[in-house]
Every structure is written in structure tokens, then in C-alpha cells.
Specification:
Structural class: mainly alpha
Order of helices and strands: HEHHEHH
Mean pLDDT: 87
Helix content: 40-55%
Number of helices: 5
Strand content: 5-15%
Length: 93
């Protein structure tokens, strides 16, 4: 398994222009911040926070509205994790 220093050295050798990557998960952001990942990245490689994943940012009212639609036999397409997110009357799964 590569060490942090080896990963940092490899990144510094590979990144030859400005690059920005966005993640959408609060858990990812917490891990990035906790481990200090940004401090070892090359200056021209940035990881930015996105809008948040559906599970983290979906308001209770929208879950309840989806549950209401499900009771009317509507087809609901969503991320798998959102199926288990509880509304005030249950969840979608």
C-alpha cells in the first residue's frame, strides 16, 4: 500500500495544469478535512465541495411528497440511498 508521501509525490508528478474536482458528499468532505488531504495536493489541483448528496440535502417535505406520489402508483426514480430516507409517514423502499 502506498504511503501518503508516495501518493503526494505521484500527484505532484502527474498534475501539469489547473484541475478542479467536485464531490457531492458530506462524508467525503469530512474525510478530506479530517485527514488534511488538501494540504498535500499540488497547488493547481483543487477539490471543492458540491451541493450535497440527495440524502444530505433533501428536505422532509420532498420526501413526504414522494411518498404521496408513491401511494398514487406513480413511478419514482431516485438514488438508492434516498429510498431508505425516512419521511413523516415511512420511506420509499
Amino acid at each position: 500500500m502506498a504511503t501518503g508521501k508516495e501518493i503526494a509525490a505521484t500527484l505532484h508528478g502527474l498534475v501539469d495544469r489547473d484541475m478542479t474536482f467536485m464531490h457531492i458528499c458530506g462524508t467525503h468532505e469530512a474525510s478530506i478535512a479530517r485527514t488534511g488531504l488538501r494540504s498535500i495536493l499540488p497547488k493547481n489541483l483543487k477539490i471543492v465541495m458540491g451541493p450535497g448528496c440527495p440524502v444530505c440535502i433533501t428536505p422532509q417535505g420532498e420526501i413526504d411528497a414522494a411518498l404521496d406520489l408513491g401511494e398514487k402508483d406513480c413511478i419514482i426514480a431516485t438514488y438508492g440511498d434516498l429510498l431508505r430516507l425516512p419521511g413523516s409517514k415511512g420511506c420509499l423502499d
